[in-house]
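Box 4.2: Ligand-aware structure prediction
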Amino acid sequence: ISGESGTPRRTRLGVMGGTFDPIHHGHLVAASEVAARFDLDEVVFVPTGRPSFKQDTTVTPAEHRYLMTVVATASNPRFTVSRVDIDREGLTYTIDTLRDLRRERPHSDLFFITGADAIAQILSWKDAPELFDLAHFVAVTRPGHTMSLEGLNPESVTAVEVPALAISSTECRERAASGQPVWYLVPDGVVQYISKHRLYRESIDGQF
Ligand code: ATP
Ligand code: MG
């Protein structure tokens, strides 16, 4: 988009990182609320490759998580999905996600969206100080997790209250594994994707 001067207008890009194993309505409502509050032009969902903090657990192959994210976001014209993390070799670190997106979108200001549980860990993330140079951080409320922005610069992080959806991917996996419904916790297309590909089936004892 060019202004009259020919200089591109800066756009506002939300970045919703996650394992999305599977994506659920808690993720979608967080992205939608932050988009409205921050007047974002777009929110890009970025499924992780191998999450550095989930090395001890088995994560569903990236291609399935990517496709479920595409299915879940397809109907929203402002939601997109990026492959930057799943196409990068090795473990996923948010610093690399943000560097790649900055390179791809030099005319966008980035707003990285995290839940209250994730923001509490952020100072332990790789290259933590530089993260805040690359994006503004938006921490959304999440049932069962206390929001603490202690130790974080208030100019770098904003807390946003979103409708409380007590949904986690862990619970969705456990439900699918034990034959309980995931209807209305995840979008309909994701329910159908999970059953079509028999995801989370043989893992009742927590071996995901
Ligand atoms: P898991 O149980 O496998 O950890 P999850 O439900 O926590 O899955 P993630 O993919 O780990 O989902 O989360 C991605 C991001 O979305 C994180 O920043 C997390 O805090 C946030 N998030 C997840 N669920 C919710 C929810 N119900 N409300 C608000 N934020 C959420
Ligand atoms: Mg999580």
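In the box above, the bound molecule is magnesium ion. Helices lie at 25-37, 62-73, 84-87, 94-104, 116-119, 128-134, 169-177, 188-196.
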